[in-house]
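User: Structure with zinc ion, tokens only please.
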Amino acid sequence: MAKDPICGMNVDEKTAKYKSEHMGKTYYFCSQTCKTTFDKNPIKYVAGTQGIQVVVAAVKIRRA
Ligand SMILES: [Zn+2]
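Assistant:
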């Protein structure tokens, strides 16, 4: 079971109609509305988890 990052609902990956890829990871949504919201600003919704780490890693690579 995957979690819709927009509304927090549980979404079954096998039957999910709405999904989006971001930074090599697939996100699942309960509705077109949630997918559209995510697509407009994906960073905002993944920043709380691995998003920050990805940004930090990118900054480190640039400095090296
Ligand atoms: Zn949703």
